[in-house]
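Propose amino acids for all 72 sites.
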């Protein structure tokens, strides 16, 4: 169903729900973002209210020293 433009900047906040129609806890996107950040990646939302949303996730490949995403 998409996310209104003025709400998009908050969707990755803990416990935030962009609509009252959601029955979730508001933790899902927060947890996803935290994991992606720990992997050295990024996440962004592209959304048009009334049409839908898509999320673009970028996680960098292994580093040259063999560690995954610079961890370890």
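Proposal:
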């Amino acid at each position: 169903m998409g996310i209104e433009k003025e709400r998009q900047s908050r969707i990755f906040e803990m416990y935030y729900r962009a609509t009252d129609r959601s029955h979730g806890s508001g933790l899902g996107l927060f947890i996803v973002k935290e994991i992606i950040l720990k992997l050295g990646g990024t996440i962004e939302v592209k959304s048009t209210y009334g049409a839908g949303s898509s999320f673009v996730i970028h996680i960098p490949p292994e580093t040259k020293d063999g560690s995954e995403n610079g961890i370890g």
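The chain has a mean pLDDT of 87. The first strand starts at residue 42 and ends at 48.
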